[in-house]
Amino acid sequence: MKQFLIFVKKEWLHIWRDRRTLFILIWMPIVQIILYGFALTNEVKNSNIAIFDQSQDQASTTISKEIAASRYFNLVKNVHSDQDIGATFRQGKIRMAVVFPVNFRYDLLHSNHAQIQLIADASDPNTANTLTNYASSIINDYQQSLNQNEQLPYTIKTQVRMLYNPELKGAYSFVPGVMALVLMLVCTMMTSIAIVKEKEMGTMEVILVSPLKPFRIIIAKAVPYLFVSLLNIVSILLLSVYVLDVPIVGSIWLLMTESTLFTITSLSLGILISNSAKTQQTAMFIAMMSLFLPTLLFSGFMFPIENMPLPMQIISNVVPSKWFYIIIKDIMIKGLGFTSVWKETLILVGMTMTLLGISIYKFKIRLA
Amino acid sequence: MEKVITAKNLTKKFGSFIAVDNINFEVEKGEIFGFLGANGAGKTTAMRMLCGLLLPTSGQATVAGFDVYKQNEQIKKNIGYMSQKFSMYEDLTISENIRFYGGIYGLSNDRIKEKTAQLIKQLHLEGQEKTLVKALPLGWKQKLAFSIAIVHEPAIVFLDEPTGGVDPITRREFWGLIYEASARGITIFVTTHYMDEAEYCNRVSIMVDGRIDALDTPANLMKDYSADSMDEVFLHLARKAVRTGD
């Protein structure tokens, strides 16, 4: 045990002395989460809007309130003329205006048809499109609540296409994906050079001549990186909750446990690579090629696995991040408990055991 | 005398290449045994078999009374090793290196502290305990690496060309350390191709093309080959080599 701790301490010193790498290891996940968080999302929050309510009736005020209360919109002005709308747009104060025609409720109740005009600043077409979609879905909700008690449906027509954006909650699905990607990259790349480095430096010979057991060497190599990775998990989760507003619906402890498990899987994979590679460059290259792309392709967070041809679907099963992505999505976003993710957990445990087993088996106690 | 290393018909083949060809020798306790040979003669391979880094193809060998095939673990506890490639951690300080190597051989904390103080004093490195090893000149590194290789007081220490690339003064100091260790009863098994160093050894063997062609005290060898120096002896033998250097 003491030998083991001394080895762990030595490994930690290697990491600690190499401040630049440590710095990258800690900041990379944070930067990536923030980058992906803001670049990969089409969610638009707190956009300034104006409302031109020519009807001022019960229906129009209810819809106005709903829109103003939504976290996507921020009502800055009630305008009172068409010219006023144009002017406010030109001043750059708003990105969208909602216009209710006169007799809005009257039309709705008597002819069962009413119209709302959504005017969006289309200089940024994506944002404009997203905003109108959000507003439409709010109006749609109102319409549905009216229709609940009625036989003859009321329809409110918005002048933009009434299409529900399935990516409305797009921001939620990428956080688990980025978590899988970042943990995989950090853990595997870090450890992939750990053993091969000693081979290159010539220190491995001395370690092999010493009474240290391969099992202890391998575990001791992974332990310090496990701590760095735990730090990464915590920073990713904090960013998700406080910066990206992605809530953790399920149990935080289950989430942490599963993340630790996945970290260990990734570390085992890194160790296996390091064990097999002859030089640090090879190790890094294998880690990049065999992990980055498959994780991106097969974890399911960028490209839906169900849409892939069958052979690729089968390949995706051996990618650990795929299972981790499912687990994290279930716990973090759907709020499910262990009973729903035990199968995926078991798969990860099995993968870890296999990888570690192969590493220990393959660890050469002799040079040739 | 007690025999700490024995090799009988020890052979190592890499495919069809016979790196070590039927070598026989014995090393006595406390002896400084020089293992000479040109580059590629098979010195390092032979030494690696004795350390347990390579499995022999055939023949027998015992180290510290343990069999190299079956009792690898016991051998490891009883030997120290200093490799050809520099073998300390460059990004660790002097005392951290001592601590690590002492620790993996199971030395107690008190013993490690005691040893650290002793080594620092012996190598005149006072005040440099916290210096990173990479900041040390090569000569100091070699001396430190040797001291660390015997930090656990092994029965035998294997040194694979320990003084490569070091200036003559430092080499002499290095040999001072070797004599000191030998006086404490540590058997020294050292490969070298500096012939002046060969004369410091109690006995030397000279390997040519994987075989041991001569084995005796330096004085006897010089007499046998009617040579004035080990250099001449070596040249006489090594000239017959068919293999060229590595």
What attributes does this structure have?
heterodimer; A: 368 residues; alpha/beta; abc type-2 transporter like fold; 8% strand; B: 246 residues; 6-stranded mixed β-sheet; 4-stranded antiparallel β-sheet; 9 helices; 36% helix; 26% strand
| Shape annotation of chain A | elongated
Number of helices of chain B: 9
Given the structure, what is the number of helices of chain A? 15
- Across the major sheet of chain A, the strand order is 2-1-3-4-5
Describe it.
The complex is a heterodimer of chains A (368) and B (246). Chain A contains 15 helices and 5 strands. With 368 residues, chain A is an alpha/beta fold. In chain A, helix 6 links the parallel strand 4 and strand 5 (155-158). The longest helix of chain A is centred in the middle third of the chain and has 29 residues, at 214-242. Mean pLDDT of chain A is 81; it is low at 161-169. Chain B is of the alpha/beta class and 246 residues long. Chain B has a domain at 90-153. Chain B has 9 helices and 10 strands. A 6-stranded mixed beta sheet of chain B has the order 6-7-8-3-9-10, sandwiched between helices. Chain B has a 4-stranded antiparallel beta sheet with strand order 2-1-4-5, with helices on one face. At the A-B interface, helix 1 and helix 9 of A face helix 2, strand 6 and helix 3 of B.
Indicate the topology.
The complex is a heterodimer of chains A (368) and B (246).
Chain A: H1 2-17, H2 19-39, E1 47-53, H3 58-69, E2 73-78, H4 82-90, E3 96-100, H5 104-110, E4 113-120, H6 125-147, E5 155-158, H7 170-192, H8 194-201, H9 203-209, H10 214-242, H11 252-276, H12 280-298, H13 310-316, H14 320-333, H15 338-362
Parallel strand pairs in A: 1-2, 1-3, 4-5
Antiparallel strand pairs in A: 3-4
Chain B: E1 3-14, E2 17-28, E3 32-37, H1 43-51, E4 58-63, E5 66-67, H2 72-78, E6 79-82, H3 94-104, H4 109-122, H5 138-149, E7 156-160, H6 168-183, E8 187-192, H7 195-198, E9 203-208, E10 211-216, H8 218-224, H9 230-238
Parallel strand pairs in B: 3-8, 3-9, 6-7, 7-8
Antiparallel strand pairs in B: 1-2, 1-4, 4-5, 9-10
Helix pairs in contact in B: 3-4, 5-6
